[in-house]
Target: Probable periplasmic serine endoprotease DegP-like
Amino acid sequence: MPHQTSMGPKSVADLAERLIPAVVNISTRSLVDSKDSIPLPKVPDGSPFQDFFEDFFEKNQEEGGRKRSVQSLGSGFVIDASGLIVTNNHVIAGADKIRVKFSDGGQYDAEIVGRDTKTDLALLKVDTPKPLSTVPFGLEKDVRVGDWVMAIGNPFGLGGSVSIGIVSARNRNINTGPYDSFIQTDAAINRGNSGGPLFDMYGNVVGVNTAIISPSGASIGLGFAIPADITSRVVTQLKEFGETRRGWLGIRIQQVSEDLAEGLGLSDARGVLIAWVNEAGPAEKAGLKPGDVIVRYGGEAVSEVRDLTRFVAETTIGAEVEVEFYRKGQLMALSVVAGHLEASESKVPIAKNADKLSRLFGMSLSELTPAERRKHNLGDSVEGVVVHEVEPHSLAGQKGIQTGMVIVEINQEIVSTPQSVVKRVETLKAEGKSTIVFLLARPDGGELVFVPIKLDDSAPEGGLPPKD
Model:
């Protein structure tokens, strides 16, 4: 049998050579307090060195030793020949000076055009004597699991480093922010690669390398990049406004679990539940209410919380969007005019607070008196029934209900006294309901939350109290 020579993947040398001029190394300098950063050497009391060291360190701090320079390294890439550069916000956060270095050796100071902490992106500007090489954004829809990708960056300060791998997964949520939808890759990404581009094999930027999972800080094949679609949208807004302009509905939401779906009369656990509605927000004006379960937004199916979060954020401010939702088991639809998230953040009122029940599912209930409001730091606007105490191993305790919470509604009906809570639960039980949904407000200014409790799971001591 003739000997066959194995062939490796096609060389990416030509592609790398074309792209490297548009990739930059970013170094930053920050001045931080150095006081107490260097401990005073320990010497025996009375030692002749004691006075020397004390005098030296005191003098050093008085003569300018109060600040020390801290440097960090990262990567970036040029998107406009005039000098616009994309990087991660964490690369330049807190920097007093930002320096950009190109592959030809040119170095320039950079200014911040805008930044977005929610997606960890930043846009910089440098002034250069000649137009710069640029790279274009690709489209997220064109990125497939298994496609070859190439990372170029400044790992550990080794500028112009190239690594290749494949797209391992898409739409990854690694809990770094509200808009997580990362591309996962096994291309080597290390410290210093942050802010650098992830290219497809056509030279399009398909992602911005942002994070790694590694116990040692070095690549183990778990790198994550912000998709180009998200990046280009944020960068466009930063370029035009110096800030992001995201859509806003004025609601707080939570995932619909199987227990919640049953308690709300839904056939399956899908969509997201509205837990709270801002009185001054677009959702309130449109007619959305706590307890509504959103299943479609602008024609897109909503499966989980981050779907709706992303869809709303990407909505043009002032645009009218159709929302489909279930209310008390009935499918409904209405139109919402998206507001401006950033403009609303300083105006969002604190969510209502709430307390807990008494001797129901392991809870003891109490009237919401002025004394209870002071005891649990409840605002004047919250109404309902206070959870006075919760038995540690009760069903209520297992569901996360805590002392100081306030029961606002049960199965979307308002309750105001401990007796009304007991009566409501008894009525639902008599109607054959197997799951009861409590709407609770957290103490100390916390948000509202829906908690489902299955009657079949209640322990004997956590069952319904006897009638008075």
The chain is about 20% helix and 35% strand.
